Amino acid sequence: MSSQALQYPEFLHPAWEKQTSAMHYTVFGRDRLNGLQRERIALLEGFDDKRVGLAGTWLAYNAILKITVDKDGSLDAQGWKWSQADWKGGCDYEMSGKVQAGAFRASDQGKNPDTLERDHATLIVNRLDDAFAGKREGKTENDDEAKCKRNITISSTARLFPAKPSEDIDNPRGSIR
Known about the structure:
Layout: H1 7-12, H2 26-45, E1 56-59, E2 63-69, E3 74-83, E4 86-100, E5 103-106, E6 116-119, E7 122-125, H3 129-133, E8 158-163, H4 167-170
Antiparallel strand pairs: 1-2, 1-8, 2-3, 3-4, 4-5, 6-7, 7-8
C-alpha cells in the first residue's frame, strides 16, 4: 500500500514514454489511479472471509491468482505478480497439482516446486521463494528453479486475500500496472 502514494505522479509522467518525455499524461494518470482504487474497493467490499479451501479468486496489491478445482480433485492456478510500473518485473503463475493431507503438492516436483499455503484467511504463494531468490545467479546447476523468467532474482512469493468475483477484479487492464 505504501506504493499507492506515488501512483499518480508515476503515471502522470511515465518513464517509459521516451519520445514524449516533456508531456504530462493527466488523464492517463487519473485513469490508472481510479482503476487501482476501484480494485481496492472491490477487494474490501468483496472480501470472502468465509472461504474454505483454495478455489476461487485471490488478490493482493501486487498479485492475482485464480484457482479452479477439477472433478478429479486436481487444482489449476493461473495468475501473475507485478512490480509497479515495471512490465519486466513480474512473475507468471501457472500451477497444477493436488491437495494431499491438507497441503498442495505441485505436479512438477523440480528443485523448487510451487507451493500454496493457507494462513488463516490468506493464501501464501511460494513461501520459500523469498529466501532463495536473492541467492540465484543462474550460472550453476545447484541454483534452484527460478519462478520469474525475466529476472531470476525476483521472488514470486505473495500473500493474497480471498475475493468474491467482481468486474473490477476479474477484468484487469493488460497494460503496465
